[in-house]
Amino acid sequence: MPDINKTKLSKEVTDKYFIQNNTFVLPVKTNQEDRIDVEIGDSKEANFYPQTKLMRWDNEVNFSVRLIENSTEEETISSETDKIIWEKGNYKIEFQDILPTEIDTGSHKFIWYLKEKPLTNKVEFTIQSKGLDFFYQPELTQKEKDRGTFRPENVVGSYAVYHQTKGRINDLDGKEYRAGKAFHIYKPKIIDAEGKETWGILKIENGIYSVEIPQKFLDEAVYPIKSNDTVGYTTIGGGGTPPWTWFEASGKTQIGVLSGTMSKIQIAANDAGGDSSVSPSRSPSVSPSASVSPSVSPSESPSVSPSISPSVSPSASVSPSVSPSISPSISPSISPSVSPSASISPSLSPSVSPSESPSVSPSESPVANQGRFFQYF
Questions:
Q1: Is the entire prediction scored with pTM above 0.70?
Q2: For residue 9, what are the CA distances in angstroms to 48, 84, 107, 152?
Q3: Which structural domain range is residue 279 located in?
Q4: Is the link from the previous residue into 138 a cis peptide, with omega within 30 of 0?
Q5: Same-domain status, 79 and 177
Q6: d(Cα 166, Cα 177) in Å, to the nearest integer?
């Protein structure tokens, strides 16, 4: 196994990564509420291995993947711009991190190459994880498509990765779990030397992360071929009718944006004795569900029904989440004068059309027992 020789690395790599124990370490996000770190190599081993490890919430959860290969040929570690490059025999892997910006949530890429036609049509990695669940994202059913649900092509056949037990705006220690989503592993595309493309078949099971390449593509490809395995640091992209749409993730309805970043969710409901309050729920063993169906009556009565039937789960595609609980206790009467503490402008008349959105201070939390309008960030 080779050692990392800093003198042979590019300035972009040495400036970007810490090098410790033959491992490249990158703090992607340094705020303690939502810290993300990446290790390329294995910090627990003396030698360098073709492994990448992603950690979130100050390593409360993590997963790592390592190439399975048994050749006896010499291996090398080098770099090109900000890419870390490992090569051995028929394999070459480029590790690269796209850091988060105001318009990009960031991602980690491990792009593997096959220099010649392989003996098998599968490339396999071991995968280990701590505190995470992996949810396969299948093709949508026709019924889901008919109701306007949208799933991008690189999300079909991908995996949404969630915290096993946490999923709320924050926790007692101040961590920002939001919907509990940690990463998204996108379906990889395989590209040959002439630019011909096909989708790889991604599968994670029994401790193995594998990418199957269609045999016909391997037979006809011009080598080398490469993948674009990508792990997103936050939610998957949405699509459909601008500016936002409902789409499905692991079988649960969620909110996504066609472009840009959704900054808030607004739910308006009047007090007409129906189901006018919202109570988010999440199954502890699966990815967050999100069904929204609060009833809104066009006429307003001063009485408020205390019943809570609709459930809303935080969307995996929206970084700002919804607090997982809203008190079901609702005052049975509302004064025509609305207190400013309810986050609603006091100039509102007691009769409110369900299509109107009273102004709400974005710095205040929704008040379930006084307002007819909920706003989440």
A1: no
A2: 15, 8, 22, 37
A3: 242-377
A4: no
A5: yes
A6: 7
